[in-house]
Amino acid sequence: MKRTLLPAIALSAALALTGCAGSAEPGQDTAAGEHAGHGDADVMFAQMMIPHHEQAIEMADAVLARPDADPRVAELATEIKAAQAPEIETLDGWLDTWGAEPTGDHGGHAGMDGMMSDEDLQALAAATGPAADRLFLEQMIVHHEGAVEMAQAQVEDGQDAAAVEMAQTIVDTQAAEIETMEELLASM
Questions:
Q1: Which of 92, 104, 132, 167 has the most C-beta neighbours closer than 10 Å?
Q2: Residue 45 — pLDDT band, cuts 50, 70, 90?
Q3: Are 154 and 168 in contact (CB under 8 A)?
Q4: Are 76 and 183 in contact (CB under 8 A)?
Q5: Residue 175 within a domain
Q6: Domain presence at residue 30
């Protein structure tokens, strides 16, 4: 009996240790590139969403600077700005807490999903009247679609509960805003 019991105990102990090898206690670094309770996906989400939100605010400001903006479009621009400015502050705070650097201005992120080029932003700033309203809506739909994709990736891959919650809020809010913008475009 001793012969079969000792190998069984050894096997059980080895399995228990193997099962624990990949986990870490909360607050411990688990691997290079990961922060206490936060992984690379969380850091990337914050680093990319900040310039994405900053550009959305820049686009909203272009609408709000126009006295001839459709009131419905101006209201939407105000809502976008009001939602995304506090999220930028939160994302900046997370990066600081996680010891990660922000990525800088959005000029280097032209290839990021939904980001407008400098030429797109110049066209929006130069546009007037109903053509400007349409251009804003068309550009912001594409912009929001990119944000939704990034946020969905965070929901799937993120480790930080607060960052995943923000990402889900972005998915829900911006998907609803896309519908609103499509309805506004159809009514113009």
A1: 167
A2: very high
A3: no
A4: no
A5: yes
A6: no
- Identify whether 45 is part of a domain: yes
Domain that holds residue 182: 36-99+117-187
Report how many domains make up the chain: 1
Rounded alpha-carbon distances, angstroms, from residue 6 to 17, 111, 121:
16, 60, 72
Closest CA to 160 of 91, 112, 71, 66: 91
Are residues 87 and 54 in contact, defined by beta-carbon separation less than 8 angstroms?
no
Instruction: Using the structure block, give the residue that is written with the tokens 């850091």.
Output: 43
State pLDDT tens for residues 52-77. Answer: 999 999 999 999 999 999 999 999 99
Q: Using an 8 Å Cβ cutoff, are 163 and 154 in contact?
A: yes
Tell me, what CATH number does 173's domain have? Answer: 1.20.1260.10
Per-residue pLDDT band for 112 (boundaries 50, 70, 90) equals confident
Q: Answer yes or no: is 50 within a domain.
A: yes
Q: What φ, ψ does residue 87 adopt, rounded to 5°?
A: -65, -35
- How many C-beta atoms lie closer than 10 Å to residue 37's C-beta? 18
3-class secondary structure, 188: coil
Give the Cα separation of 58 and 81 in Å (integer): 9
What string of DSSP letters covers 125-152? HH--HHHHHHHHHHHHHHHHHHHHHHHH
Q: Is 35 helix (H, G, I), strand (E, B) or coil?
A: strand
